[in-house]
Design goal:
Low-confidence stretches: 391-402
Shape: extended
Strand order of the largest sheet: 12-13-14-15-16-17
Largest sheet: 6 strands, antiparallel, barrel
Length: 505
């Protein structure tokens, strides 16, 4: 109740079994008779001025995910627990913080400074750590459970510490099996027959008899480089210098493994708990420190010009981490001194930088698709992910204009997003158009070529879909259009419709 001395006490309520119940309350409310799972009517009978706040599960989950991202300063393996908690796999990480006890104290101190009350524990198994953190009241002074003592630490804890459903825990308590120690050595077959295999599985997870698989929120990076600061940094120039140093540390590791970067993320951990991140991608494996740094510089520039939401440094960043999340094999390549083979690399680097500055989805290339229907034949995809737009240039296959034979253009390069309905006058129903009206503007046809007949894809559209007759037409002003008649006259329809599909440059 501290922090709100002048306001009435408040509780969090939610609908449980068709009744409004108290799911959480302020500290010290127990002495007034307020408890969890209590009916709201009973709580208000005790304190009429009770303030009620509806439970928001989505907001709780968002806050928990935010805390999980913050906890990545200790380990990249952070997972959400079934309840309102987090699992941190700190295997191989504790020595960076002076040992497990020091790491635990650092977590609690930092979260307390952010206004969170926490209950933490370290054990060999996720189940044992969860049980001691939530129910280990008698182990307040021993939150780090040694490897040979976690079974003894679990023995006096209630069966609810095994993360069991409430119904299962209540039934065990009715039978007198109130603690984990009371069921740890019982015959397994009767327990499984009465309470199901889930009880035994949770018991084995807690005692380490069976491995428990945790799913981290973020994929595990292949390479990680980080820099910690005793005094948080805030200016961008220092961040750029640290970034260059981290990239320089990552390049030799990539070389030893014969890999190139395809995606990496720079995470900046604020001293007050927030985490800012910048992710860059490359269209092909990249192992050049200057080009990797240039991609991040473009992302930083996008923050300043309004292309992206600019993050706030707050009180400064005390940890900067570079995570290389996606890689591909990249063999060492020796360039020919007599041949200028840098054209493809420069074009690829330009696409990477534009994608970093403007967004990957805004730099697109046209790719072929197995279809004869015009709007399905070509598809747009992000150039940085497909690599199709400049892979030929990377190989140095630059064709000269004089070597390209003349191409007779029969279709426009770009089509309308959707074919647009026309009003057409034709001399005969199945003949070419002589006049048409498009977007309320009349046009008179001066020249016309066609038709180019395109059948439907009956295996996709069905046999009832109509055939198209395309015409290339030119009006009196010299503008050229690509339009089609939808449906064969008297064979598929008695009133075929006309559509505009594209314009020639």
């Amino acid at each position: 109740m501290s922090g709100r001395p002048e306001a009435p006490p408040f509780v969090i309520i939610d609908t449980v079994k068709n009744a409004l119940r108290v799911t959480a309350h302020e500290e010290g409310m127990e002495r007034h008779g307020i408890a969890r799972d209590q009916n709201l009517s009973d709580a208000r009978a005790i304190i009429p001025a009770l303030e009620c706040v509806q439970h928001d599960a989505a907001a709780d989950h968002a806050l928990l995910c935010s805390l999980a991202r913050w906890c990545e300063r200790y380990t990249p393996l952070v997972a959400l627990s079934a309840g309102s908690g987090l699992f941190l796999d700190i295997t191989g990480c504790a020595h960076l913080f002076g040992g497990e006890a020091s790491l635990l104290a650092d977590v609690e101190t930092r979260l307390a400074a952010q206004g969170f009350r926490t209950s933490t524990a370290i054990a060999d198994t996720a189940g044992a750590a969860w049980a001691v953190a939530w129910y280990g009241i008698g182990h307040k002074k021993q939150r780090v459970i040694p490897a040979d003592e976690h079974a003894a630490a679990l023995e006096p804890l209630p069966v609810s510490a095994l993360r069991l459903p409430r119904e299962t825990a209540a039934e065990l308590i009715k039978l007198g099996l109130a603690t984990i120690g009371s069921i740890a050595e019982l015959p397994r077959a009767p327990l499984a027959a009465r309470f199901g295999a889930h009880l035994l599985r949770q018991l084995d997870h807690a005692l380490g008899r069976e491995d428990e698989v945790l799913s981290p929120m973020q994929p595990v990076a292949e390479l990680v480089c980080e820099k910690r600061f005793a005094d948080p940094i805030i200016d961008e120039e220092t961040i750029r210098q640290v970034l260059a140093r981290l990239i320089g540390n990552a390049i030799p590791m990539l070389e030893r493994r014969g890999l190139g970067m395809r995606q990496c993320t720079l995470r900046l951990f604020r001293a007050d708990g927030d985490v800012a991140s910048l992710t860059v991608q490359s269209g092909s494996p990249l192992r050049d420190a200057g080009r990797m740094a240039a991609l991040f510089h473009e992302r930083l520039a996008a923050l300043h010009d309004g292309s992206e939401a600019e993050w706030d440094a707050g009180f400064g960043f005390d940890l900067i981490r570079l995570s290389i999340e996606k890689t591909e094999p990249l063999a060492a390549h020796q360039h020919d001194m007599m041949v200028n083979g840098s054209t493809g690399d420069e074009i690829g680097h330009l696409v990477d930088r534009l994608s970093a500055r403007l967004g990957a989805e805004r730099i697109q290339v046209i790719g072929d698709h197995d279809s004869h229907v015009p709007e399905r034949r070509s598809i747009f995809s992000a150039a940085i992910r497909s690599g199709a737009g400049y892979s030929g240039f990377r190989e140095g296959a630059l064709a000269l204009a004089a070597d390209i034979p003349p191409i007779h253009v029969t279709r426009p390069l770009l089509l309308l997003a959707r074919p647009e309905l026309l009003e057409v006058i034709a001399e005969v129903p199945d003949g070419p158009p002589s006049r048409f009206r498009w977007r309320r503007v009349p046009y008179k046809v001066h020249r016309c070529e066609g038709p180019e007949r395109i059948a439907c894809e009956w295996w996709k559209d069905g046999r009832g879909y109509h055939t198209r007759d395309y015409y290339r037409v030119e009006d009196e002003a010299g503008y050229r259009f690509w339009l089609f008649r939808h449906g064969l006259y008297e064979r598929e329809t008695n009133a075929p419709k006309w559509f505009m599909h594209g314009l020639f440059a």
